[in-house]
Amino acid sequence: MKIEIICATRLPEIDFWAGSALGISLKRLAFDKRILPCIAFGNQDGLPVVYNKRILASDDNAMLVFIHDDVWIDDYFFYQRIEDGLQHFDIVGVAGNRRRASRQPAWAFIDMPSVWDVNSNLSGSVAHGKQPFGRVSHYGPAPCECELLDGVCIAAKKSVLSAAGCLFDDRFDFHFYDMDFCRSAREKSLRLGTWPIALTHQSGGNFGREHWMESYRNYLEKWGE
């Protein structure tokens, strides 16, 4: 069984492989022929458009990993981590929240502006930094069943998503696509969970900016909140 690494990047192909965190990480993992990069170079579409195309086009037995281009994959057992996680959960992430609250603005935040949920509800770890093996933000124990997952890295089997009719909503191009996807998956009775996978994310997010606020309003409207 193969893993498809699905990523939308604004970078042209040569720049992605030469300079992006994910591109360099995938070259490091090139020894594992079960890992297949599926990169949308020079992308101008929202993430759901790119992600849904691969869900529909992928082999039925493929494992799909939706990941940002500014992520260092620090874990050279990446294939094994994803495979193990998807034996326990339908959808796997590296960080998440065990509950979901009304009007929640992010997986880790319970209220605006950037009010963190209590530690007992959070799970997983993500490192942050411009270089690989960054400083670790430890949110809570993992593995753990969750209601919401951080969209920096989400994995699922193609067969599971297809059977449930679970896709990303293209009205959420770069923000809230992950929150919405998790809620849709839970409505279809899919099990979400965190799994210990070593990643470093270069970005801390864009909370509160104009486009983020517009997506937040659309998200609340969709879910009647």
Explained architecture:
The chain has helices at 13-19, 21-28, 47-57, 78-88, 158-164, 177-187, 210-222, and strands at 3-8, 35-40, 63-67, 71-73, 91-93, 95-97, 109-111, 115-116, 122-128, 135-140, 144-146, 148-149, 153-157, 192-194, 199-201. It has 225 residues and is an alpha/beta fold. The chain has a single domain (3-222), classed as Spore Coat Polysaccharide Biosynthesis Protein SpsA, Chain A. The strands form three sheets. A seven-stranded mixed β-sheet has the order 2-1-3-13-5-14-11, with helices on both faces. Strands 4, 6, 9, 10, 12 and 15 form a six-stranded mixed β-sheet that branches. Strand 9 and strand 10 (135-140) form a beta hairpin. Helix 1 packs across helix 2 (21-28). The protein is globular. The termini are far apart.
In short:
This protein has 225 residues and is α/β, with parallel strands linked by helices. The chain contains seven helices and 15 strands. The chain has a seven-stranded mixed beta sheet with strand order 2-1-3-13-5-14-11, with helices on both faces.
Number of strands: 15
Biggest sheet, open or closed, and with what strands and sense?
Answer: 7 strands, mixed
Shape: globular
Determine the fraction of residues in helical runs and give it as a percent range. Answer: 25-40%
CATH topology: Spore Coat Polysaccharide Biosynthesis Protein SpsA, Chain A
What CATH architecture label applies?
Alpha-Beta Complex
The radius of gyration computed from the alpha-carbon positions, rounded to a whole number of angstroms, is 16 Å
Unreliable stretches:
none
Provide the spatial order of strands within the biggest beta sheet.
2-1-3-13-5-14-11
Count of individual helical segments: 7
Summed up, the domain count is 1
The first-level CATH class name: Alpha Beta
CATH superfamily: Spore Coat Polysaccharide Biosynthesis Protein SpsA, Chain A
